[in-house]
Amino acid sequence: MPLTSEPSSGAAPVRPSPASEYPITDKVREAMTISLRGCDELLPESDWLSKLARAEATRVPLRIKLGLDPTAPDIHIGHTVVLNKMRQLQNLGHTVIFLIGDFTSTIGDPSGRNNTRPPLTPEQIKANAETYYKQASLVLDPERTEIRYNSEWSDPLGARGMIQLAARYTVARMMERDDFTKRFKAGTPISVHEFLYPLMQGYDSVALKADLELGGTDQKFNLLMGRHLQQEYGQEPQCILTMPLLEGLDGVEKMSKSKGNYVGIAEHPNQMFGKLMSISDTLMWRYFELLSFRPLDEVGRLKAECASGRNPRDAKVMLAQEIVARFHSPRAAEEALADFNNRARGGIPDEIPAVSLTGAPLGIGALLKQAGLAPSTSEAMRLIEGGGVRIDGAAVGDKALKLEAGTFVVQVGKRKFARVTLA
C-alpha cells in the first residue's frame, strides 16, 4: 500500500538490525549456504544470517523481492539466474515477491547505459509483463509467488510525494553511481528524470517491507538505495544479494540475444538441448552452479568423477536434460537426448575451436570458408553435396542455406569441428 508519512526534519528512527539472540542452527547454516550459492555479493552477510535465524525461530517467512522492468517480451536462461535464486529461497519457505516495474518502466533504467534509455509505452509494458511473468513462472512456483506492480504505490505519490521522496537523497551521493559518473565526465547528457529511477526502485522496498532484494551485479546501486530509504522510513534495512551475469554459449561474452550466444527458454527442446551440449567442459560447471537445482555436494561429486576419468559428456547430458525438463517436460528432455544422439552419431569432441563471425544471415559456403573448415566456397559446396557437413549434428543438404545469428557446432567430415558464433 502507498506510504503517506511525511518527511521529518531529521532522520527517521531506525529499527535495529535483526536480533542476534536467535540461535544459528544447522538448518539456518544450510539456508545460508543455499543463499550464497553462485552469488556475487550478499550484503551484509551477518544481517542475513540473523534474519534467517529469526525466521527459523519465529516461523515468520522473510520477504524476498525481485523487481523486473518488462523491457522485452522474451527471456533467456541468463535471465533465470536470479529467478533460480528466488526459487531456492522460495523452497526454504520464504515469501517471494515478483515485482513488475510498470511504473519504473515509464522512466527508463539508466543502469549500465551511456545514454538515456527511452521509456516504454503503457501498451508495451502491459504486453511484455504478461509474457515475462508467464515465462518466469516456469522457474518460480506460481502458487507461492506474490505478484505486485509498483504503480500501486508510485502513482498515488503525486508531485508532492515525489519531491518529498527526492529529499531523502543527495545529488552528491547520486553522482557516486558509476554510470552517472562516467557520463558526467564524458559530457554525455544525464536527464534529471534518470535520478528518479533508483529512488523509485528503492521506494519499492519501503512499500513492500522487503527483507532481501535480488538483482544482477549491475543493479547494486539501486539495491543499496532500497536499503538506505528503508532506514530513512524507520524500517529494518533489507539485505541485498547480487547474482553474476551468465556467460553465453561462447564462454566469453555475457549471454545476449544480440550476440547470438543465448538459449531462449521458449525454444524447441531439441534446439535447447543441442545448444547446451555445445558448451565447453569448463563452462559446464559454471552453468551447473548458476542454473542447476542439484545440491552442491552432488555437483561436487560429479565434478570429481569427471576429473577422475568419467566422460564429461555424461555430466553435460544431465545438465541439458535438467534445463529442458524445467522449461518443457521430463518427456521432452528424454526425446531431446534421443534426437541429439541420433543426429550426433558419436557425439561432439569436448574441446573444439571457437570462431566468431559477422554478416548474418551468412551463406553456408561462406561460413565454412571463413571458419577455416573449407579452403574455398566451391570446396564447401562439394562437401555439402557429399553429405559431409553437419550443423548441431544435423546433416546439411541445402547449398543455399543461410544461417541467422547464433552459435552452432559445425562439423566437416569426421574430424573438423568449430563452435561458430555468428553475429
From TrEMBL:
Cell compartment(s), UniProt: Cytoplasm
UniProt key word Transferase: no
Domain RNA-binding S4 span(s) in chain numbering: 362-423
Motif ('KMSKS' region): 254-258
Enzyme type, top EC level: ligase
Chain ranges for the short sequence motif 'HIGH' region as given in the UniProt record: 70-79
Known role: Catalyzes the attachment of tyrosine to tRNA(Tyr) in a two-step reaction: tyrosine is first activated by ATP to form Tyr-AMP and then transferred to the acceptor end of tRNA(Tyr).
Quaternary structure and interacting proteins, as annotated: Homodimer.
Protein name (Swiss-Prot/TrEMBL): Tyrosine--tRNA ligase
Upper taxonomic lineage: Bacteria, Pseudomonadati, Pseudomonadota, Betaproteobacteria, Burkholderiales
Gene: tyrS
